[in-house]
Amino acid sequence: MLQSWFLGYAAALGIKFTSSVDDVVWLAPFLTSRDSVATRVHNSTVYIGICMVQTLVAMVIAYSGNAIVGRIASGVNSAWTTEKIMTVGAGVLLALYSLKLLREYIQELQEDNDNENEVERPTEIELAPNDEHRRTLQDSEQLIPPEADAENPPDKDSIGNKEQVSKGASKRREALYCIAFIGSIDDLTLFVPMLVGKGFDVVQLALGAFTAASSIVMLCIFIGLCKPIADFLSRVPLFLIVMGFATLLLIRGFSM
């Protein structure tokens, strides 16, 4: 009895791990040592939580009626199987999402260039070689001792940098939710038939999925602890990561 239960648990663990091990491609950049511990804990919780939600959805589908189960579990030889349709569909959705991220990335580059031009333009005017009067005033201002820090106005550049960091963190959180949810849709095509066929029960699936998702998170954290790898992953634009994962899903889907 106990042995058969562990066999079912091992089956659920193996299916979830093998079907989701490619998540390391996109999840590792969210769990590097350059991120704070709180950020890594949050991202890990989000990933594991979404995996468990997908597991719950599979349970609902498996026990919601023979008609729905039949459509998902069965495949027609002359047509695409449900697994292939969902895998390719997830790849297409991620590819479209990567295009959205690419557009935002280009817009951010343009905004950064515009901000740099706005900052540099007045400096060039003030330091023009023919404008001796302004240069003299600038030299005289440097001789005046600075006032106390409490009386100095806030630095606009630092405020702008904080806003950019906050905006970037918000976009990364949004991307994490989207990629994790879309990327695990194809798990339904594996979980539902196994639940219907009594390959494992609900408890075994839940524990197996949780263990597999936690193992993938630990693997990503281990990869991110290596500073050169963490630095490299942090420099890679997010749209490239999503596009690469979408390509993997499309290749896997069309090869089924």
Explain this structure.
By secondary structure, the chain is an all-alpha fold. It has one domain (1-110, 167-255). 78% of the residues lie in helices and 0% in strands. It has eleven helices and no strands. The protein has helices at residues 2-20, 24-27, 37-62, 66-73, 82-126, 132-143, 156-183, 188-196, 202-224, 227-235, 238-254. Helix 3 packs across helix 8 (188-196). The two termini are 35 Å apart.
Q: Tell me the major beta sheet.
A: none
Briefly note the structural class of the backbone: mainly alpha
Unreliable spans:
124-128
The amount of helix comes to over 70%
Number of domains: 1
Protein name: GDT1 family protein
Keywords: Membrane, Transmembrane, Transmembrane helix
Sequence-ordered SSE layout with sheet pairings:
Layout: H1 2-20, H2 24-27, H3 37-62, H4 66-73, H5 82-126, H6 132-143, H7 156-183, H8 188-196, H9 202-224, H10 227-235, H11 238-254
